[in-house]
Amino acid sequence: MNSTSTLPGNRHAASTTNGIDTTALRGAIDAMSADADLASTHWRIRSRWLGGTRTDHFVDDFTIGGERVQRPFVIRVDEPKELCGTNQYPNPQEHLLAALNACMMVGYSAVAALMGVTLTRLEVETRGEIDLRGFLGIDSDVRAGYASLQQTVRIAGDGTPEQFQRLHDIVRATSPNFFNVTRAVAVDSRLEIE
To answer: Which of 59, 165, 64 is nearest to 112 (CA)?
Structure first.
């Protein structure tokens, strides 16, 4: 399989907009359009319980185009004291909403750069309510998660209102995490007892 380090965009002088190397991005788009195998990615998180509500989640690597890329990160999670935690780190809901916002913000920055639009402000606020009676098994008629999320995107730059609307539409149509949150994703959850 071809190495992503040989993508055409990685060999030319950089042209940067919104902190995005548009030359590299266009080269990657061209290469992936010509060879679909280069677009294949695989993601994995290993999670470990540390007692109570504390968990650590390990990012070791990911693959792109069949090439393994090392990524040594730890994501730490806790709950507020009001939910029996120690309040040391953000909780799973905060990580979920942050992951949604972050994924979309990458899209806004990159797509705007490809459109030739320079951003001067980009903020995404997502909020929602969870009735804990569902999570705690108190009432089976109460859903365990969000009924809906409300999101506000605040954006400014040298684009026209029409360009910003097109940008917003493109990001909502192409953001992986917007897709994952707004559509049911099948999860094959298997139990192994040791």
So the answer is: 165
Mean pLDDT, to the nearest integer, of 50-61?
A: 98
CA atoms within 13 A on the CB side of 73: 10
**Short-list 107, 105, 122, CA closest to 157:** 122
102 vs 148: CA distance, rounded Å: 19
Nearest to 165 by CA among 177, 147, 153: 153
Give a yes or no: residue 193 inside a domain.
Answer: no
> Is position 25 within any domain?
no
Q: Please tell me the total count of domains within the chain.
A: 1
Q: Taking 90 as the threshold, does the pLDDT of residue 59 lie above it?
A: yes
Spatial separation of the C-alpha atoms in residues 2 and 72, rounded to whole Å: 24
State pTM to two decimals. 0.90
Has residue 57 got a pLDDT over 70? yes
- Phi–psi pair at 160, nearest 5 degrees: -85, 165
pLDDT at residue 34, rounded to an integer:
97
